[in-house]
Amino acid sequence: MSWDLSIVHYLNHFTGAHLWADNFIVFLAIYLPWLMVTAFLIWLGHGMATHNRRWRVFIQAVCAMAIARLGAIEGIHFFYERPRPFLAEQLNPLFVVNEWSFPSGHAALLSALSLTVYMYDKKWGIRFFVVTVIVVLARVVSGVHYLSDIAAGLVLGTVIAYIVHLIGLKIFRTRRRRRS
Questions:
Q1: Rounded-to-integer distance, Cα 104 and Cα 168, Å
Q2: Is 178 helix (H, G, I), strand (E, B) or coil?
Q3: Which residues, including other chains, have CB under 8 Å from residue 146's CB and lie 6 or more apart?
Q4: Which of 19, 41, 116, 158 gives 20 to 30 Å between its CA and that of 33?
Q5: d(C-alpha 158, C-alpha 108), whole Å
C-alpha cells in the first residue's frame, strides 16, 4: 500500500463513529470554503485603504482562482484521470464528488485566494492559509482526496497566484507611468 493510500485509510477510519463529527468534517470540507470567500469580500471592503487598491486585489484574486480552478485543474483532469479514493478503495466517503481526484480544485482555488490576501496583508493571509489547510485536510478525512492531490493543488494554486500577482504589479506600474 502506498503512503498516499495509507494516510487516506488512516484518516478515513475515524469517520462513521459519530454523526456530529462526520457532519462537522463535511461542514469543513464543503461549506467552510464559502465562508472563506465571504471573509475575503468583507476583508476587501474593510481592509483596503483605497478604492483602486480594492479593485486591483479583487481582480487579482478572481483571475488567480479562475486560472487555477478552471484552467489548470480542468486541463490536468482532461489529460490525467485519477479516481477518487472512495472509488478506488474500500472507504467510507462522507460525501460523493463526481470529478477526478488529482489535483484538488479546492486546494488550488483556496491557496490562490490565500496567497493573494497574503501579498497585501500578511496577518490575514496567514489566517487564510490556516483555514485552507483545515479545509483540504477535511477533504482527505472525508475520503474524496489523496494527500498528493492536496499537495499538487496547493502548489499549483500558489504558483499561479504568485504569477498573477507579478503580472498585476507590472500592469499597475505601467499604468502609473503612463499617467505621470
A1: 25
A2: helix
A3: 4, 5, 7, 8, 82, 85, 101, 102, 140
A4: 19
A5: 7
As a residue count, the chain comes to 180
H-assigned helices in the chain = 3-12, 19-26, 32-47, 51-66, 74-79, 85-88, 105-120, 122-141, 147-179
The topology under which CATH files domain 3-179 is Vanadium-containing Chloroperoxidase; domain 1 (1.20.144)
- pLDDT at 179 exceeding the cut of 60: no
SS3 121: coil
Neighbours of 171 (CB within 10 A): 13
- Every domain of the chain and the residues it spans: 3-179
**Segment 9-44, tens digit of pLDDT:** 677 777 777 888 888 888 999 999 999 999 998 888
CA distances from 69 to 14, 109, 160 (A): 29, 6, 10
Per-residue confidence at 86, pLDDT binned at 50, 70, 90? confident
Q: Name the least confident of 36-40, 68-72, 95-99, 176-180.
A: 176-180
Nearest-angstrom CA–CA distance, 144 and 55: 35
Question: Left if phi > 0, otherwise alpha if psi is -120 to 50, otherwise beta: which for 143?
Answer: left
* 26/137 Cα distance (integer angstroms): 11
pTM over 0.70? The answer is yes
